[in-house]
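G., before I forget:
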Amino acid sequence: MTAERKVEDITAKRMLINWLGLGLFALLGVAAVVPLFLIIGDVYIKGIDAINRLGGLWHFLTELPPTPVDERGGIGPMLVGTLYMTALGALFGIAVGFPLGVYIGEMRREKFANVARAGVNILVEFPTIVVGLFVYAVMSLAKEDLNKYLLDPLSKALSPLGGWITQFIGPLDGFNAYAGAAALSIIMIPYVALITASAYASIEQPLREAAYAIGGRDFNALFVVLRKAVSRAVVTAALLGTAKIAGETAPLLFTAFGNTYYAPFTGPTGAVSLWIWYAAQTPYDVLIASAYGAAAVLLTIILIIFIVARIRG
Amino acid sequence: MLGFLLVVLLIPYLIAAYGLLFVKLRWGLRLFGAFIVATIGLLTAMFLVEAYPIIARDGVAVFLQTRWDPVRESYGVLQALAGTVLTSAVAMALAMPMALGVAVTINEILPARWRGVFGSLVDLTATMPTVIYGLWGLFVLGPTLQSLVNALAGSTVMTTPYTLFTAGVLLAIMITPYAAAVIREGYSLVPKPVEEAIYAIGATRFEAVLIKLRYVRNYIIGGFFLALGRAMGETVAVAMVVGGNFAKFTTNIFESGITISSLIALQFPNAASYQYMAPALFAAALLLTLFGLAINAVAIYIIQRGQI
Amino acid sequence: MAKIELKDLRVSFGASPVITGVNLSIPDRSITALMGPSGSGKSTILRVLNRLIELYPEAKVSGEVYLDGQNIFDMNVLELRRRVQMIFQIPNPIPNLSIFENVALGLKLNRLVKGRKELFERVKSALEKAQLWDDVKNRLDMPAGKLSGGQQQRLCVARALAFEPEVLLADEPTANLDPENTAKLEALFLSLKKEMTIVLVTHYPPQAARVSDYVAFLYKGQIVEWGPTKDIFTKPRHELTEKYVTGRLY
């Protein structure tokens, strides 16, 4: 009798521990996700209010930022900067990241491919400020000669096309949009590469052999026949990578630097993330409000990209 | 001249690499591989060059002393080193339990329909711009933590909302998804036969979870190091909430402090005005890079070693 | 009274029925074989007997199963699994745990022993019964994943025997073993049946003929015929049974 009672007690105790333990795990899991809601809520509540106070959505998206004494303002130049640099950065990020990913994913038996893979793994988790610093160093080193030998003559040659060309091409300042885009692409390349590599690596051997048999040339096999198999993952990587770099701040600190005016991309360029970084740390209410408004805009862009990526994937 | 050559060769190189893809695919692909290796090599070289002036003048003292005196051109980053260590420690202590919680919740507790949504929420947490985390930390988390900590302690332990502790908590929220992703992947790879065996010998669900976690120990360690690397390198969010205490060495997490990455972010705008500040910051960047490299190498090694 | 009774057992995975009404009595202290072609549902029945089927949320179970007259679905599942142990087709020790730990784990979890000495004795005697003790006595701390296939299976047998179970369920345990290990395991079953009830799933009729006292022939989720082994193999009443035991049905 006592033995049975004891067994029942032990079982009851184990079931109690079971519920408590699982409950603890669930609590921790939920705790990881709760801040997300708090942050999104905070940004949208204060941000939408700020946008309304500062002039309404359309004005906010096009006007120049407020000075400490203004009552209205917007993030026009910064939005343009973000869109331009993100687009360029994503373009190069995919253009280089995809073939790189194919290389380290498909040609794994080569020793050099493993070296490259190690390099990609190193780069993918690099502190982003270091990447920005690197581009800054290269930019400072190359600026003079680059302008003298390439960009001055080029912009003179293109000037018949009209004054608008100088917005995009011309001698570069130390801080410019292209340096910013370069830093962003260096951040995106390893990310796209790794996802591409694992997409190709997870192709089952029979499918791969069939692709090579049908495709004839390697090129056809990898990019035409196997396209369907990997395109979903690669497109998702491209979208998520773009979302990631759209929100980056640190790499732009010393490359694009920031600008509160509509200005040529060959000089200091603003970005939404840079504006938030700067404005939030000032003591002026109107600037802090514009930071929240900017955050709401940035968050919306990223959420849209994220949701599109999730739906497709 | 060197810089010029570099930049001028870049576009033709990439065009050539692309062209080669169509002609001799494998060689084209190799060129892309070379590109990435060259980038890393170049980065290391440039940092060494830029940091050289201060290392030549002070040796390793720049890493071992606490000082930020631009006027006297005297720099030491020990306080930043301590700050990085402390904020990372706080962050990891909070993040690892949460990451385990996420992995177990997704794989064991949630019904199948909710797993995708929950997983997406965790992934979204990772995709959020760090500057928005900083914004929230600045105006919401900081003050809230200050009230909370002081209330729990019964006295003014935190005199300002912006301390190493605040940065640590904010970091924890940001890095949890990274560790969680690795642990989740490992956990889902536990073979069905092993799972059947665990339950056949009469384990409760919780006991089974503990056994499985032990089975994926390598992934947990790997996730740990991955998140740690991320914590040490995070710049913007930390810079906005850590308090910007450049010149004083402190080990009290409830005081303001500074980390290596936030030091670089906050001081670099001043660097043009001083002779040795930029080299000092590049030296700090070099240190950060080496740390990050070491940690990520360990992470990858451990994860791969588990994949026998 | 039979050790295990199945009454109108039905199991379906989602929309596909796998077991469509099974009635069976499994006698105590004997070996009952479940044989039949692949997909007939034998492994599924086995997994109902220790409620391991509950690991598959898509599986819907109806009907009654009695162990010593008690409905197993009313029992605490931990108690059921203390009394009913299982060995699997693919040996599945927990590879990162040591040999000793693998056998000890179940005992520790269920608090079946008190103190290290008793634990060691139980583990040792289980390993001896499984005929693995001599092979591993000097390397009990080695990770179980490093044993050979045959040794891993014997480790799993030891793990089950450590419980001193009333029922041993065996799901095609020799399917992945070489003839020598197969013969050893079959001999072990024959010696064990004096102490416990054994339910053996096999897709190889000669094995059922060699080893079992009773055999049930399962075809497409239904029991076609069951009874004492000798009768079934020499005088099968059903045409399907006859085809199966003579190798003309798979």
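The first strand of chain B starts at residue 66 and ends at 69. The beta strands of chain B are 66-69, 74-77.

More on Monday.
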